């Protein structure tokens, strides 16, 4: 009996050892396979990188070779490109028309799509189709009578049609609906100024610069309104604020320079007037003011040259 138990014990141990050996072989095989696979993948990636590098070199050589071809080819390419752009223009117009048709179709199915109304209105504005723009926003206002944006856009379209009274009425409705509207005071002030209504323009543009002080063009128009009213000091202050908010402008530089000259701040006047003289629209006035500025600085030779330039330009004007 003991002998049988002993044999069974030996057989059991042998089975365990064989099982452990098998497990060890499986793990060894797995790690060998994994190492082999990684090496092959890296090798494959390196080969891809090498081929890509060779392709880049070939492309670079081809580009250099094309750059060395006669410039006649470039001229032909430019001509072809220009012709293509000329052909593309009607295509763009067709795309705009198609977009307008799509928006109109959407609105025919659901008139409550206010964003579609705005988008279609922008298309009409950009294509200068103000009649359709007016019809669109009048219809929108019938449905949304308190929509300030619809009234504002309608006012803009009316003004483009030179319907000044209708435009003013729409802009005033916008103000009643939204007293802090960021654009309406500028547009209404500009309309007043264009039509010689200086006091109304100044009052409206004062509100515009209060709401949007960073809007240089509003300061500029306010300066022009005050200038028309012979409010010189207010005009100059507005022009100076405009100068700090917008790109350099011949008219602003001229007016600010003239103000410095009147106050005998010759260095400041010279700085502004010399900038003004570099603009294409520079006229005899700027050279006359430069002459006075140079004379104030004691630069008599420069003053004579500036006065002569002013006389020369006056004969051509």
Structural class per helix/strand content?
mainly alpha
Secondary-structure arrangement, i.e. CATH architecture of the domain at 90-181: Alpha Horseshoe
CATH superfamily of the domain at 90-181: Tetratricopeptide repeat domain
Overall mean confidence score, pLDDT: 78
C-alpha end-to-end distance = 136 Å
How many strand units? 0
Q: Under the CATH scheme, which class of the domain at 90-181? A: Mainly Alpha
What is the helix fraction of residues, given as a range?
Answer: over 70%
Give start-end ranges of low-pLDDT stretches.
1-8, 28-76
Q: Give the percentage of residues in beta strands.
A: under 5%
Examine the coordinates and then state which fold CATH places here, giving the name of the CATH topology of the domain at 90-181: Serine Threonine Protein Phosphatase 5, Tetratricopeptide repeat
Q: What is the makeup of the main sheet? A: none
**Radius of gyration of CA atoms, rounded to a whole number:** 39 Å
**Helix count, DSSP H or I runs of 4 or more residues:** 14
Order of helices and strands: HHHHHHHHHHHHHH
How does the overall form come out from the CA principal axes? elongated
């Amino acid at each position: 009996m003991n002998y049988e138990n002993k044999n069974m014990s030996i057989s059991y141990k042998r089975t365990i050892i064989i099982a452990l050996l098998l497990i060890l072989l499986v793990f060894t095989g797995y790690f060998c396979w994994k190492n082999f696979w990684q090496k092959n993948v890296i090798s494959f990636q390196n080969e891809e990188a090498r081929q890509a590098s060779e392709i880049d070199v070939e492309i670079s050589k081809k580009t250099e070779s094309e750059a060395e071809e006669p410039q006649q080819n470039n001229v032909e390419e430019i001509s072809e490109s220009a012709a293509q752009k000329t052909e593309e223009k009607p295509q763009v117009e067709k795309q705009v028309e198609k977009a307008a048709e799509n928006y109109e179709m959407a609105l025919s199915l659901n008139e409550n799509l206010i964003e579609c109304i705005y988008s279609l209105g922008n298309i009409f504005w950009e294509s200068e189709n103000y009649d359709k723009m007016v019809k669109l926003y009048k219809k929108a206002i019938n449905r949304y009578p308190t929509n300030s944006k619809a009234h504002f856009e309608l006012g803009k379209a009316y003004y483009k049609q030179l319907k000044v009274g209708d435009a003013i009425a729409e802009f005033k409705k916008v103000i009643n609906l939204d007293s802090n509207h960021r654009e309406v005071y500028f547009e209404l002030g500009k309309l007043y100024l264009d039509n010689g209504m200086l006091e109304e323009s100044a009052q409206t543009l004062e509100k515009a610069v209060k709401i949007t002080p960073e809007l240089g063009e509003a300061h500029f128009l306010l300066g022009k309104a005050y200038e028309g009213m012979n409010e010189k000091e207010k005009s100059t202050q507005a022009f100076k604020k405009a100068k700090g908010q917008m790109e350099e402008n011949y008219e602003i530089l001229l007016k600010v320079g003239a103000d410095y000259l009147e106050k005998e701040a010759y260095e400041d006047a010279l700085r502004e007037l010399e900038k003004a003289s570099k603009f294409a629209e520079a006229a005899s006035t700027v050279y006359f003011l430069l002459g006075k500025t140079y004379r104030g600085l004691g630069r008599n030779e420069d003053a004579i040259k500036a006065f002569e330039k002013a006389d020369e330009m006056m004969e051509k004007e």
